[in-house]
Design brief:
mainly alpha; disordered N terminus; NaCa_Exmemb
Amino acid sequence: MDAKTSDTIDSSLDATATPAEQQPSVRRRAQLKPEAAAAPSSSLAAAAASATASTKMRGNSPNSSPLLQQQREDDAQSSDDDIRSARLARTSSMPRLLRSETSRELNNILNNTHYGPIKWMLLVVPVAILAGVVSPPSPLSFFLNFLALLPLSALSILTILVLTKNAGVSGGVLRAVFGNITELALSITALFHGISRLVLQITIGSTLIYSLFVLGGCFLCASFGKRDAEFSKSRTSLMSSLIMVTTFCLSIPTAMSRSGKGGVQIPIVGSLGKHEETLVLSHLTAVVLSFLFLAYIAFRFLTHDQFFPRNPNAMQFNVSGRAPSLPAGRTQEASVLTLIAVLVTSISCTGLCANFVIVSIKPTVDTLHVTQSFIGLVVLPLTASFAKSVTIIRHARSDNNTVVTERMSKLDFAIRSVMTNVLDTLLFIMPMLVLIGWVAHRPMVLLFELFEVVVFVLAIIIMSYLVQHGKTTYFEGCMLMGSYLSIVAAFYVRPESAGSIASAYIPF
């Protein structure tokens, strides 16, 4: 076929086709030989006349348009079938494990935006456990297990939030327990190793992080670049009052012991002596605070839940985004079983890593020339609260896309999260540890050193004062974070007292 004939055919097709159908013809003409562009004008005129005649003939045919439409639909259907066949071919070539429902759920958990950035640190977990098993306690074992606790803590928190996202009272209790599983594992391990003072230091350190550093980070993130950031002072004052009452109750045993002669010393088993009354008072205080925690849970989730609306900007994790071939009941059952398996595995690994961290504290202190108070008040609480702290600060700033519920901003929910974690530590974890020690014959007395209790009480007072105003600026956030860093520096340079060293490891 010569160039003239080809040009005539293309012109006739262009005249009868739609713009989308004309593009292949244009491309074909662009690919013709250069001599085709120099064809005589008479042939072009003839092609145009032929195209006009063809258009009239096809326009007069009543069945031409339906046939063309049917051909287009057939072409589109065949294209969809080809794409579907290609996807099935790729899926059939994948390993069976990657196509399972369990692997999909695990992949959703690990790729979640709240957990994804540190998921690669899970590779440290088996290395840390192996180092703790095959080698004696050492700074290396402490460091590896310290790093392993960071992703394990985030994984436990994410899993329990997904499992209890629609639960009420039971969900609040489960989140208080398993949402703080790293702190509980470290404290219980220290308690059963006879380091009761370290238990108190871990709980105080967690309270200082949330009440000063995390709250300051929320103020800074929410108000930076703005004149100020507003929040609901009526809701925050309710929770801050409960925190103040709890702090007062926990400080009573120390105040009573300090009021006697000879100062305060951490008692050891079999030689409680004058501290026997303080131990009884600690047990009674723990019982009272436990009932107060249950009353708080009922108040929050049953009787006055209107004061605690759900956060519409919080993480929405879809656990049922799987293949539609499974029945709905089986899909939900599979997701719950998978999440429970993940939670049990993370708790088991957390317990092992926490044990290796505790037994490695003494050689780490001797090697790095730091005090045990610095390890207990700064390093270990950072392990337990790192994941939640970063998440709270990141989501404290409101933007144009923020969903507001009953005039509550993202800063309101961030402040509420800070106070909830403080209450979980003071109102639930600390009394529960005292009761566990009571049942297991590991006496844990609520006796703090003078410097620790002063810093602890002042931090709670500062937090309660700043949340009463209803608005904040970035400068208040800088002040809170600077206060925490000053306290960290004080704990670092402060020498260990002789009484503290003598009572650090209590023999059983």
